[in-house]
Specification:
Layout: H1 21-40, E1 45-49, H2 53-74, H3 78-88, H4 100-107, E2 108-114, H5 120-133, E3 136-141, H6 143-156, E4 164-167, E5 170-173
Parallel strand pairs: 1-2, 2-3
Antiparallel strand pairs: 4-5
Helix pairs in contact: 1-2, 2-4, 2-5
Length: about 170
């Protein structure tokens, strides 16, 4: 009996390509978001925006995800288009979105959740970013929610009082 390993040929050499750091920063989290979305069975993402850097970064990563998905679908990666059809609940005849902004409008819903302490500047920042990405966007006031939470907390602490101290545009209990 000849040795079976002797009949095996080595595979072809594979060149490994490493992304530059900026590419990795943009594409790594965006790829993870797409993987999560397609596996979760959800229809998209909701991103609350404060007008600050953290929430803006999350929305920008979601926008990068849409760019990656559109690029892959346009390159003919049938698996990506199949996943996109499933996520969007579309049939095989759907050719996909025209561009990343259109896809963002289908997958990403953002909301500016402002209060009496919020500024027009932060609201406008959130609106501009959502428009640039292409996300479906709305703005709402959370003053009623804050009041309801304080009332609930006061009621459940047997008459204890929770005051609200406002620093900048952030609430903190005192």
């Amino acid at each position: 009996d000849p040795d079976p390993a002797a009949r095996l040929a080595p595979s072809e050499r594979i060149e490994v390509a490493f992304p530059d750091p900026m590419e990795e920063i943009a594409e790594g989290p965006a790829s993870w978001l797409w993987d999560y979305l397609r596996r979760s069975g959800q229809a998209g993402f909701f991103v609350p925006l404060s007008g600050g850097a953290d929430s803006a970064a999350v929305l920008a990563i979601c926008g990068s995800m849409c760019q990656l998905v559109c690029t892959a679908a346009a390159a003919g990666e049938e698996g990506v288009l199949e996943d996109l059809r499933r996520v969007r609940g579309q049939g095989d005849d759907w050719a996909g979105p025209g561009d990343a902004r259109e896809l963002a409008g289908l997958l990403i819903h953002s909301a500016y959740m402002g209060s009496a302490q919020s500024s027009d500047t932060t609201r406008l920042r959130a609106e501009r970013l959502a428009a640039e990405v292409g996300a479906h966007h709305t703005a709402l006031s959370i003053d009623g929610v804050v009041t309801a939470l304080i009332t609930l907390f006061n009621a459940t602490t047997y008459g204890g009082y929770v005051g609200v101290h406002i620093v900048g545009n952030r609430y903190s209990a005192v």
